[in-house]
Amino acid sequence: MAVRVIKEKCKGCGKCKKVCPFEAITIENKIAIIGDGCTNCGQCVESCKFDAIEQDKDETKVDLSAYKGVWVFAEQRAGVITPVVIELLGEGRKLADAIGTELCAILCGDDVEKLTKDLIAYGADKVYLAEAPELKDYNTDAYSKVIYDAIDKYKPEVVLYGATHIGRDLAPCLAVKAATGLTADCTVLEIDPEDKKIKQTRPAFGGNLMATIVCPKTRPQMSTVRPGVMAKAEYDKKHKGEVIKLKVKFGKNDIRTKVLEIVKSKGNKVSLTDADVIVAGGLGIGSKDGFKLLKKLADKLGGTIAATRACVDAGWIDHAYQVGQTGTTVKPKIYFACGISGAIQHVAGMQNSDIIIAINKNEAAPIFEVADYGIVGDLHKVIPEILEALK
User: Fold this and answer.
1) What is d(CA 110, CA 129) in angstroms, rounded to the nearest whole number?
2) CA atoms within a 13 Å half-sphere pointing along the CA-CB vector of 368
3) pLDDT tens for residues 218-253?
4) Cα–Cα distance for residue pair 253/174, rounded to 1 Å
């Protein structure tokens, strides 16, 4: 065991038991006993004024001072930067300024150097560029090797990823390679003014509370951030930056899989994260036909429809339209919540909208607590009146 009690010194005061965050310590016969729940966090060692608890020295202790800079993974698909990258650059700039360091982006692909100009215009002071035919399409082995090699060489202090399908696959792989922590689906990122650590806040226990997580002993500090949560960086052509080309070389067994074909699903493209106006429906719309009325309002305002998980589970609409903790996080200018009760899991995905308009027959519905405007009434009567007024 990495943490041990020196019985001759232990007084059985119970201070270590009180400070243990994992309840792994008990007091038996006036001696502290460390159980299997111990995670070697060291809280008990620091609290013992009798020096009765010792901890093995960590020979792999990280020199935190060697790590500098805030990095953003510049995810691109088919040569196009994904919108969440622009949000991460906006948030990354705030973090970098608070720490007093530079903002960087790391870009992987094949023939994507042209994208570095946009990344610099959106605020990146440096862009680390990795180009190779093997990087044309996202591949876990290829991308994780190239980016980890860059992390190992340049030692960023913070690395941010979008919580997209690619980001959620890549970030854990890199966290394991770098032997560091990862906080997923963050909604708030801020810098502790005292020690400059990043404080990462995310919903926990089904969205019923918010947990703030820190990574005090390892680097880099890693987070994935849901699209639509952070404000986008402003485009500035005058901003100057540097492009650093990375040497890319793969061994025979470095890449274990390859992309044979990319099949795009047929149907209407849903882009909830880019929509300025969203008209969302819950079970209160009555049936799948209720979305026809919502679509009339969305089309009139140049927006798109969306739905709660309950509607998706009922088979009324495709999952691509789902907003919420297990769907898409959105931040439109106007969000209509029609027949939506206001469960915390749904609210977590739309509460940052500029203006929220709730329509519900139940005047006590929780959705009214987060709404800027509330209309108590039958949406099947209210929406036609809104459409008539818009004429």
Assistant:
1) 10
2) 11
3) 999 999 998 888 889 999 999 999 999 999 999 888
4) 18
Q: Which of the 8 DSSP states describes residue 239? A: -
SS (H, E, C) the chain: CCEEECCCCCCCCCHHHHHCCCCCEEEECCEEEECCCCCCCCHHHHHCCCCCEEECCCCCCCCHHHCCCEEEECCEECCEECHHHHHHHHHHHHHHHHHCCCEEEEEEECCCCCHHHHHHHCCCCEEEEEECHHHCCCCHHHHHHHHHHHHHHHCCCEEEEECCHHHHHHHHHHHHHCCCCEEEEECEEEECCCCCCEEEEEEECCCCEEEEECCCCCCCEEEEECCCCCCCCCCCCCCCCEEEECCCCCCCCCCCCCCCCCCCCCCCCCCHHHCCEEEEECHHHCCCCHHHHHHHHHHHCCCEEEECHHHHHCCCCCHHHEECCCCECCCCCEEEEECCCCCHHHHCCCCCCCEEEEEECCCCCHHHHCCCEEEECCHHHHHHHHHHHHC
Between β-strands 221-225 and 158-162, what pairing exists: parallel, antiparallel or unpaired? parallel
Selection from 388, 358, 380 nearest residue 279 by Cα: 358
Owner of token pair 């108590």: 376
Nearest residue to 118 (alpha-carbon basis) of 166, 79, 163: 79
| pLDDT given at position 266 | 59
| 211 to 114, 134, 283, 353: CA distances (angstroms) | 39, 38, 30, 22
Taking only Cα atoms into account, the Rg of the chain, rounded to an integer number of angstroms, comes to 25
Q: Which tokens hold the place of 236?
A: 């500035």
Distances from the Cα of 137 to the Cα of 85, 166, 170, 257, angstroms: 17, 11, 13, 12
Mapped onto helix, strand or coil, the DSSP state of residue 263 is coil
Q: If we measure between CA atoms, which residue out of 172, 177, 185 comes closest to residue 151?
A: 177
pTM of the model: 0.73
Residue 345 has pLDDT above 90, yes or no: no
Give the up-direction half-sphere exposure of residue 226: CA atoms within 13 A in the CB hemisphere: 24
CA distances from 229 to 324, 330, 331 (A): 12, 7, 7
